[in-house]
From TrEMBL:
Protein name: ABC transporter ATP-binding protein
Record's subcellular location: Cell membrane
Domain of life: Bacteria
Ranges for domain ABC transporter: 12-267
Keywords: ATP-binding, Cell membrane, Membrane, Nucleotide-binding, Transport
Gene Ontology MF terms: ATP binding
Predominant subcellular localization, coarse grouping: membrane
Entries under Pfam families matching the protein: ABC_tran, oligo_HPY
Matching SMART domains: AAA (SM00382)
Membrane-topology annotation of the record: Peripheral membrane protein
Family, as annotated: Belongs to the ABC transporter superfamily.
Length: 342
């Protein structure tokens, strides 16, 4: 899903990620490899925020880790390109070059970012490490960090002296954000940065991200399973289902004219996203097994608009509006029907 644009900072083309070792010889005893991200393309423009949503297991985190070229084993990129403006194809860079780019040109705040901290080091020690890796003078770096901490409503003096366990989860998350934007990356990937936080801390983190974006131009991919959060922070929404990007478009367009039945289900699930049994309220059923995918559309078994051809034909991506792309054979009629009702 892509629209060539001159101000694109990150261009992902046809990216596939598999968990599992490649087959050796004819007989395979281990489980077949699971395709977690399957031929996904996405362009991120300078300064924009894409809210990337989807159920657990849809491949959102894998997509984020793959962009950083930091996949946990046995994950591996089997296809595609990740072009970062000015740095080339990240898939093909060596580790030394990647280490220099990570943090400086492209940053990531991980799911449960608290684990990024060494319990034996103060926050100031952590920051010093970052300055050292990127060759930044200690005092200059510290001044920059202090300003960002103020923006993140953190008590600078106390936080710098503290060990990670002395801070609350929300404070650690805010420090993680400060640490990841300190080098002013062009792109920041945030993997569920608000999931483990209470409602107040969630709102604060979203406000802080907005505030930081207003002073330093930075494109973001904000991964979440929550449509409301994605539409609150995002300029565009990207919806992943079973390793594929099934709908991408500007927030308002997707909201008003959701054209994939899965996206419609996600919207119908807001605000009570999941039921007690873990199913999405608006989308009954479970995603397919990623090691044994169906032949046609991956959503067919859960789709209330399924037709015979959906079970045999892999859907193409259709453009239903300006920068609004949908992977469903019925996207155009579904979009028209929805817009009549809003
Ligand atoms: N380290 C791993 N080893 C094997 N399979 C994995 C590994 N990590 C993820 N997977 C598989 O890849 C698929 C995508 O997982 P991923 O964590 O990227 O999804 P997600 O949308 O980020 O889910 P969540 O919202 O729960 O984080 C799933 O089928 C998952 O089981």
């Amino acid at each position: 899903m892509s629209h060539q644009d001159s101000d694109v900072v990150l261009s992902v083309r046809d990216l596939s990620v598999v968990y599992g070792a490649p087959a050796k010889g004819r007989k395979r005893k281990s489980a077949p490899p699971a395709v977690a991200v399957d031929h996904v393309s996405l362009d991120l423009k300078a300064g924009e925020c894409i809210g990337l949503i989807g159920e657990s297991g849809s491949g959102k985190s894998t997509f984020g880790y793959a962009i950083m070229n930091l996949l946990p084993k046995p994950g591996r990129i089997t296809n595609g390109k990740i072009e970062l403006l000015g740095s080339g194809d990240l898939v093909r860079l060596d580790n030394r070059r990647l280490a220099a780019i990570r943090g400086k040109q492209i940053g990531m705040v991980f799911q449960g970012a608290q684990s990024m901290f060494n319990p034996l080091m103060t926050i100031q020690d952590h920051l010093r490490d970052i300055f050292r890796v990127h060759g930044v003078d200690n005092q200059t770096g510290l001044n920059e960090a202090k300003e960002l901490m103020n923006r993140a409503r953190l008590d600078v003096g106390r936080v710098l002296r503290s060990y990670p366990h002395e801070l609350s989860g929300g404070m650690r998350q805010r420090v993680a954000i400060v640490a990841s934007v300190m080098m002013k990356p062009d792109v920041l990937i945030l993997d569920e940065p608000t999931t483990a936080l209470d409602a107040l801390s969630q709102t604060l983190v979203l406000d802080i991200l907005r505030d930081i974006r207003s002073v330093q131009s930075m494109a973001m991919i904000f991964i979440t399973h929550d449509f409301a959060v994605a539409s609150n922070i995002g300029d565009r929404i990207a919806v992943m289902y079973a390793g594929q990007m099934v709908e991408v478009g500007p927030v308002l367009d997707v909201y008003r004219r959701a054209s994939h039945p899965y996206t419609r289900g996600l919207i119908a699930s807001v605000p009570s996203l999941t039921r007690a049994d873990g199913e999405l309220a608006g989308v009954p059923g479970q995603p397919p097994n990623m090691s044994d995918l169906p032949k046609g559309c991956r959503f067919a078994d859960r789709c209330n608009l399924v037709t015979e051809q959906c079970r045999t034909r892999v859907p193409e991506t259709l453009t239903v509006g300006n920068e609004h792309d949908v992977m469903c054979v019925r996207a155009i009629e579904i979009g028209e029907e929805v817009s009549v009702h809003v």
